[in-house]
Predict the 3D structure of the following.
Amino acid sequence: MKKIQAIRGMNDLLPGESVYWQYVEATVADILQRYGYQEIRFPILETTELFKRSIGEVTDIVEKEMYTFDDRNGDSVTLRPEGTASCVRACEQHGLLYNQVQRLWYQGPMFRYERPQKGRYRQFHQIGVETFGMLGPDIDAEILLLSARILRELGVSDAVTLQINSLGSSEARAAYRDALVAFLGERKDQLDADSQRRLDSNPLRILDSKDPNTQALLDGAPMLLDHLDDESREHFEQLKAMLDAAGVPYTVNPRLVRGLDYYGKTAFEWVTDKLGAQGTVCAGGRYDTLVEQLGGKPTPAIGFGMGLERLVLLLKELECLPEGLDQPIDLYLVAVGDLQGQALILAEQVREALPHLRLQTHCGGGSFKSQMKKADKSQADVALILGEDEIKNNQVIVKPLRSGEAQQSVARAQLIETLKEL
């Protein structure tokens, strides 16, 4: 019988790998809580209309990449390709937005049908941060300082650079769009095929083209920053002043656009050259019109998403993971003879007294030699050995497995203190 394999682009996360993910997730969650952000959780499956209205029907995500199907009622549903729209939908549905300030975060899988490659899969994972109800550049600066702290505490800040841009108001973008289309329309035959298609549907995305000939052509194109409205220009200048005062280095990238229609004003990316072509590890921006697009009251908002696959890859590439992260347990309890019941009771007593220690009890029987082999293979620092003599004398053997120190017989009453010393 043919073995069933995982669907292409849907990757398993095995125990040896998951410890790194747990470290990243725990570090980020701790920082977010320190900044006063609260976790929100929402479904993986949403109505397709949510993403068509928010992301834009002529974006690559909606046109090519969404996992969309009809459910048994004939309703069109989609596996979420990103988190912002779902977060807005959940907040609006439950009355969290109108005349309120929210600082929220979430994590989980997203789904896009595209060519799988290193650091980019069809099921990928993000930590997202979204804020609502704050209009000024100070929250933009906080978001950037927060993302900078996450990258710094993960130990990767020297390998990433911050790029920022302003996309201006919708009116400013419309005027710039006309100027860009006029410029590129005269040179359409020099554009790559994707950019030719986007010229009519979504010309700002041409700025993000990876085609070198198109990029060279854009050197002479009009600049979005030259078409900004006064409010957006002042907002951007204040943001830059705040970043300068906080000592956060950045580069203004006038070609930086986001692949989603709802962005305006501030846009940013943290990028690295350590992962090949897939160099963006965190990206986001303002989306002050999205809540209204989805039926709510006008609500200023800004947020970002961090790709967990790329963060883990970057940590491994830079070898900046904490020592011992891949060590699953501290103690391994061996029971010689028919003593499994008593071994389990002893293990619970140790866990109760020393809850920070990771203790694994051998189960399934086996000789003393085979159990000690498994104890050594477990990577535990210490083996606890319980045999008939130890039960009779109310003792436990404590055997260091890594340090080379001699084993010792310890009275049960002294075991906890001995383990604390070790």
User: Anything to note?
Assistant: Residues 15-34 form the longest helix (20 residues). The longest strand covers residues 102-111. The chain has 15 helices and 16 strands. The chain has a mean pLDDT of 91.
